[in-house]
Specification:
369 residues, Beta-Lactamase, Helix Hairpins, Heat Shock Protein 90, 10 helices, elongated, binds adenosine-5'-diphosphate
């Protein structure tokens, strides 16, 4: 190597290469004791050289590797000069401040006259990982958008043709005694528009959630008043003879949570309860507040959920086999689940086919004093 230059020049040149390398270069002995590091290692892990030399390599590993590390290099008894022990294995490093980062590790063996040492090359891939994650997210969003377009072009057709036919019928009812027919078609238009708005809202909520754009904003409010407000809004979209029986229990009516999110969750569950049960069936709606949490329960006596579909209920676009005659997107419960997890809550349900379903959400009311 560098034959025309003196030995000292060569050594300096090698030193400069190691010192300016972008990748971390670290040498350890067979017990894992660090013998040397280059400046890149200091940058990557945040330790000064002196803080690393003489200590075990496991200081640069996160748990559980840190405790489980067993000086495995000692087991490589029959290797030799330049032998590659690991090539570009993806591992996680732990910085001095406790944070972690992914890197590719290559280890090779160097046989010195008196002992063998191992060189580790540490190639930080955190930026690459971020780019890959962003790309994956982007692809998922694209998939969501194209599936939405497919679903919307199908789901939009029914309400749009209902609006069109009702509008032209209204145009034909000229007599004053046609008033009740006119009203019936006005209501049909209203509920079709509500249906379309619902689909668009679901999609917008989900896109926002997926893009991490939903910020939780806590404020103090009265859950009983909010529920009453929701009931007033929903009364006009319930089926003939359906009614929501609302009850509030617990030692308080005040919660400190995100009003917008709670309202969305409740509207979603109540709309489903109405949609999936027949005319005249009651819907039970209960809120409970105690020191620890807010619990929301919605129970109906509707079509229920087939056992084989239960495990996929919260999947995006999933609709149970007995729901295909009812308009829907299969996005609502997925959105509810995401909202619930933003608030660190849990969601569960119980359902019997043709008897009814009950959904229960529990959200910590931890900020309440
Ligand atoms: P959508 O109602 O738009 O189809 P959701 O995500 O709200 O979408 O619900 C997913 C599926 O879960 C529904 O298609 C339906 O099969 C089932 N489901 C949800 N709520 C109920 C309910 N109260 N009763 C019966 N089935 C329900």
């Amino acid at each position: 190597m560098f034959s025309s230059e003196s030995k000292a020049d060569n050594a300096n040149r090698l030193r400069a290469i190691i010192d300016t390398a972008v990748d971390g270069i670290i040498t350890i002995d067979a017990r894992g004791i660090i013998e040397s590091t280059n400046p890149a290692v200091t940058k990557q892990f945040g330790y000064m050289t002196d803080e690393m030399i003489g200590r075990n390599i496991k200081m640069l590993m996160p748990e559980p590797d840190r405790t489980q590390h067993d000086g495995y290099l000692e087991k490589y008894n029959h290797t030799g000069q330049g032998k590659i022990i690991g090539k570009g294995r993806e591992v996680i490093g732990r910085r001095k401040d406790g944070s972690t980062f992914p890197f590719l590790l290559s280890i090779s063996e160097i046989q010195l006259t008196d002992k063998k040492i191992f060189t580790g090359i540490i190639h930080d891939i955190s930026e690459l990982k971020e780019v890959k994650d962003a790309l994956k997210k982007e692809m998922e969003l694209n998939e969501l958008k194209s599936r939405f377009v497919t679903m919307a072009s199908h789901e939009f057709r029914t309400p749009l043709s209902a609006i069109l036919s009702s509008a032209s019928l209204i145009g034909k009812y000229n007599d004053s005694d046609d008033e009740s027919k006119r009203q019936k078609h006005v209501n049909r238009i209203k509920s079709s528009v509500a249906n379309l708005t619902g689909i668009l809202n679901d999609f917008l909520s989900l896109s926002k959630l997926e893009e991490g754009m939903v910020q939780v904003s806590f404020s103090e409010f009265n859950i009983k008043e909010l529920s009453q407000e929701i009931l007033d809004e929903l009364n006009s979209v319930l089926k003939e003879g359906q009614r929501i029986e609302y009850n509030h229990n617990g030692n308080s009516e005040i919660v400190i949570l995100d009003t917008h999110i709670i309202k969305n969750i409740i509207i979603n569950l109540l709309s489903n309860a109405s949609k999936y049960s027949s005319e005249g069936k009651p819907i039970e709606f209960r809120t409970t507040v105690n020191n620890e949490h807010l619990r929301i329960t919605v129970a109906d006596q509707g079509i229920g959920i087939p056992d084989e579909d239960k495990s996929r209920l919260f999947n995006r676009f999933f609709r149970a086999q007995n729901a295909t005659n009812v308009p829907g997107t299969g996005l609502g419960l997925n959105i509810v689940q995401k909202y619930v997890s933003l608030l660190d809550g849990t969601i569960s349900f119980d359902s019997k086919l043709n008897e009814g379903s009950q959904f229960e959400i529990t959200i910590p009311n931890s900020k309440k004093s």
